[in-house]
Amino acid sequence: MINVTVIWALIILFIIQPDIAHEGAVSGAQLFVHALLPYLLPYIILTQWLLKMPSNHLPSSQWSRYIKAYVLGSFGGFPVGAVTVSEMKKNGEISTTESSLLLAACHAPGPMFIIGFVGNELFGSVASGWKLLIAIHLANIMFFLVLLVFLRKQRVKTVPQPPVERDQKTSPLLGSIKDSSSVILLVATTVIFFSSLGNVLSHLVSSVFPIDMGISKTLLLAVFEMTSGVQSATEHFSGDAMYPMLIAAIISINGLSIHIQVMTLAKGAGISILPYIIGRAWNTVLVPLLFILIY
């Protein structure tokens, strides 16, 4: 009943403030088209294509499979990690337990986004972008190693799932394009919706409470949609000394938009999301701290 009430409240809020909702949706759509789609789509297609290529044998070493998942999944931007891990589980390359651990570890923004957009355009320093990227990957790798220590027995006992039979008449490239289109649609939908929702709620909070619009908008967009949160932080806090740490914190939080993308893909592949949730809490705390030390 509470969920229904909240949904109706949001519907009414969107009707009352259509111009603000529209402004947020337009902003989200522009961010998706200009900042996400050009980087995300080619990489997802190539990753899916590589994973769908027929293979007569699986990598003998479990660490080679982990490295494959991390390299393919962690350097293409959100939610390529979830796409990669889900596909490897369907192929029978990793077990159910391994897939849940890798889902938590193979989750990072793309290097082009961090180094090119955040580092070069926002920080005005490519070196700062590299430092933030290193902090993110250090936190991910540390978390995965910790999980392996605590869950070693469960991982050893887990038997990989048999690979899913694929239609031999469909080429790997066509299959990758088809699957990638659904992922891109998921990303676009969540980015636009949560950008609009965050925009509406930030105006509501600022009108009800004596809170500066820049603060409320940045905080709410950081919770709902990462890229919009980064943009808002840049508009309102780019001249502050805390600005680099604020950007690092927003990126480590990821936002509901990205979390829902990952959870949707994980659910479709039957992967547990508990390690992912723990991993996001870990990164939210550790990434800004590591960035401070490196910065």
TrEMBL record:
> What protein does this entry describe?
Sporulation integral membrane protein YlbJ
Carries keyword Secreted? no
UniProt source species: Sporosarcina newyorkensis
Q: What UniProt keywords apply to this chain's record, in alphabetical order?
A: Membrane, Transmembrane, Transmembrane helix
**Transmembrane segments annotated in the record for this chain:** 31-51, 99-118, 130-151, 183-205, 241-261, 273-294
Asked if the keyword Membrane belongs to this entry, the reply reads yes
